[in-house]
Amino acid sequence: xxxxxxxxxxxxxxxxxxxxxxxxxxxxxxxxxxxxxxxxxxxxxxxxxxxxxxxxxxxxxxxxxxxxxxxxxxxxxxxxxxxxxxxxxxxxxxxxxxxxxxxxxxxxxxxxxxxxxxxxxxxxxxxxxxxxxxxxxxx
Length: 139
Fold this sequence. Notes:
Elements: H1 3-8, E1 16-19, E2 23-27, E3 37-41, H2 53-74, E4 78-82, E5 98-103, H3 121-134
Antiparallel strand pairs: 1-2, 2-3, 3-5, 4-5
């Protein structure tokens, strides 16, 4: 059981900004900037690929609303949505969660380094075909 499960159950307090049957959103207690909000499914799954279609759809409906509300409340004009899966991808709490992180005028928010490579066209066709073959509706 993760700390987020304890928050969902009300065992640990939080600053809730939204809640429905499937989703809970609350302020991060270690924010990168004012308004840094976590959006989590109530379904207990560690990574996004494990999440049910129902929970994923609920997150998808709510996430844009939370982003708009955070922007309005903070006055930020930009933000990042961050979602990590697995320890190697810097996931620290093993319950699916999305960070909505406002970027403030003073530069507070998420800093990102992007070490981009190049996609070889032949390798891209092969990889795209493999990924497409693995996409299973309703799974």
